[in-house]
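Dear H.,

Thanks for agreeing to be a second pair of eyes. The structure we're designing against is below in token form, covering all 216 positions.
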């Protein structure tokens, strides 16, 4: 996950202590990606992805999760849904495997270069995320960036009942994150650099991080 998304997860966890088991869907550590596992050393955490590699405990396809109904307490999927070919099927699967009272944390980029890990299919707006989460009982959506041109969209959704206190704490953490923690140097560069410069710089950055990973 990106640094701002890590800060988001940290804020949400401090607000409500995310319940376990915690499943991270899209956990493969690609270039520049931080490991969510480090945030949950004291809880059951399962890193999942469609491809094997660093950070992955279980190979699972979001289109057809090999998990029982109501078996996940917290589902995290950060900057992954743009890579899911049939995202409408994936959200149904996440709803199915969440326990009553379970929490979904979903993020995706909006203004961002194409990044093929292995393919990049979609971009989502805040309204798109709200529509996607129509089966959930409580939904919070936030956009981070410049007005109607955000770089990141966040969805926090709860399946089933949640106390007003829990919902208030989640909403407060989300809004505080947007005001204080949603920008890092990468997000700032994406907002201020013209595409003619941003695209080659992003290609250089991904190749540089891939080389660093190979040398470890």
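And this is the sequence the design step returned. I haven't edited it by hand at all.
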């Amino acid at each position: 996950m990106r640094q701002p998304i890590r800060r988001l997860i940290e804020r949400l966890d401090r607000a409500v202590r995310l319940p376990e088991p915690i499943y991270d869907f899209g956990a493969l550590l690609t270039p520049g990606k931080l490991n969510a596992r480090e945030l949950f050393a004291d809880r059951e955490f399962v890193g999942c992805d469609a491809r094997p590699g660093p950070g992955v405990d279980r190979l699972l396809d979001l289109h057809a999760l090999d998990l029982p109904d109501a078996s996940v307490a917290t589902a995290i999927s950060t900057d992954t849904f743009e890579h899911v070919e049939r995202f409408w099927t994936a959200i149904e699967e996440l709803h199915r495997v969440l326990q009553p009272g379970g929490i979904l944390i979903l993020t995706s980029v909006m203004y961002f270069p194409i990044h093929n890990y292995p393919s990049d299919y979609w971009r989502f707006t805040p309204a798109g995320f709200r529509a996607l989460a129509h089966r959930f009982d409580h939904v919070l959506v936030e956009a981070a960036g410049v007005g109607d041109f955000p770089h990141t969209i966040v969805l926090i959704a709860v399946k089933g009942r949640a106390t007003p206190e829990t919902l208030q704490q989640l909403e407060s953490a989300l809004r505080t994150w947007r005001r204080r923690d949603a920008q890092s140097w990468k997000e700032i560069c994406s907002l201020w650099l013209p595409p003619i410069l941003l695209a080659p710089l992003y290609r250089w950055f991904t190749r540089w991080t891939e080389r660093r990973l190979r040398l470890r």
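Two observations from my side: Residues 3-215 form a domain with the Rossmann fold fold (CATH 3.40.50.150). DSSP finds six helices and seven strands in the chain.

Warmly,
E.
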